[in-house]
Amino acid sequence: MHHNSASISAQSMAWIRLASAYSVATKKWLTLLSELNCNPEALLTSKSKASFLKSAPKTATHLFDKISEQSVKKALMWLDAETERHIITFGCCEYPEMLKTLDSPPLVLFVIGNPLLLQQPQVAMVGSRRASHQGKSIAEDMATALADAGITVTSGMALGIDAAAHKGALKGLGKTVAVMGTGPDTIYPYKHRPLHADIINAEGAVITEFFPGVPAKAWHFPRRNRLIAAISLGTLVVEAKIKSGTLITANLAADLGRDVFAIPGSVYHSYSEGCHWLIQQGAKLVTNVNDIFDELAIEPLCTRNIVNVENEKSEVNSLATDKLLASVDYDVTAIDVIAQRGSMPVQQAMALLLEYELCGLVTAVPGGYIKLRGK
Q: Sorted alphabetically, which InterPro entries does this protein's record hold (predicted)?
């Protein structure tokens, strides 16, 4: 792992140069290295390069032409510009082992923030960019619960479910990793500048395999998605249409032998179709984070003070048995209906509901009140 260009070993430098061959599948370099039984530094020294080019078929010679010294220079300048920047190469001990299961693993990772996070157990959360309000709130709650249990939440910093997942993890006690489809010097989408900063400030990490100066291109996102699927123990799909990038990520995870989890939704909602299809294909149906822990055999960290939770619970339960609370539905319930059900004046009902709202049991919405889930 390197914090500045002065600290880069010749070995890592060689990996960076191989990685700079933007259009070459990394599998080609790795195959070449194993065929020649040498390391990247040796491969790039002029002597072995010359003997290799003599023996190699013409097709392999163009690999070397693809190396971009310009990109390498940009990478080193990027690294030196700020302290929380790091470059991790395929040969580093900090390189995440999980990524090595990929057919074409990235040879270089540009990291802003905490590089050690990449070694931690992670669960990916993915879903639609145009998610429903409910989907985003489920994603946020799930991410908070995962983070509180000591699991790093990994996503792609896109709009919709991704952003909700990162925000939920930041609300929890945990960390989050954003995998980008652009160079490390570009924030995409641009409106996520504050989110990007929040992730780094919370000792999370923003990572990418793309070199500085590389813009957002459509084909980068499937490439980015394979990293999200590979680096995580499992992938949780919150909302997805049938033909979507989200399902591609879920399928990649399954192909890599990772667990796929899906949250069911309404049969009337097109965003649930993808999740329901995944469940039919054998993804695990998830309604709370314990379903994920059961499957992954992770012991969640008990981070909360147990005693407090018990006290809170009994207090909440005495409220929950309350007739008035029982008269609030999970759908919007009008205030006069609630008052009528509780056989009390509207004013009194409103005063009690305000108390419930402060306890997080109900929430006021246009047209009345909604009981909150899990209460």
A: DprA, DprA_WH, DrpA_SLOG, WH-like_DNA-bd_sf
Of 178, 121, 127, nearest in space to 150 by CA: 121
> With contact defined as beta carbons under 8 Å apart, do 303 and 175 qualify?
no
Neighbours of 134 (CB within 10 A): 15
Q: Can you give 55-93 as a three-state secondary structure string?
A: HCCHHHHHHHHCCCHHHHHHHHHHHHHCCCEEEEECCCC
39: left (phi over 0), alpha (psi -120 to 50) or beta: beta
Stated pTM of the model: 0.78
Per DSSP bridges, beta strands 284-285 and 362-365 are: unpaired
Token reading at 118? 């990449």
Handedness of CA 99, 103, 107, 109 (dihedral sign): negative
319 within 8 A of 361, measured Cβ to Cβ: yes
List Cβ neighbours of 5 (8 Å cut-off, separation of 6 or more): 76, 79, 80
Give which of 146, 154, 208 is closest to 182, Cα–Cα: 208
Task: Of 357, 326, 331, give the one whose Cα is nearest residue 343.
Answer: 326
What is the token pair recorded at 372? 């909150």
Residue ranges of domains in the chain, CATH in brackets: 5-81 (no CATH), 115-296 (3.40.50.450), 306-371 (1.10.10)
